[in-house]
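Meet the record:
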Amino acid sequence: MALQLLLPLELSWVYANQSVFFPASTLFMEGNLLRRTKKHQEAKSAYLRAQEAWLAGGRLRTHHFNGACMYKLGCISDDLGETEQAM
């Protein structure tokens, strides 16, 4: 419920937007909010979807946004105790 208040945009509208960065960054922000509320599995899913949205738009893997997604996925894996995946 809190995420609906913080993110008033519907994801269908976000995906309909022409910009690749907007949906990816919205999903990244959702992952940050979920991680803050200790919903680690949901946050991991949000970070993965953000990374997929970024790469699906034809963006490079070497871009700093992709690096931020990879970093956050490592942090989530560490939070979940998955040390092998975190490294």
Summary: Residues 20-86 form one domain. The helical segments are 2-6, 11-16, 21-36, 40-56, 64-79, 83-86.
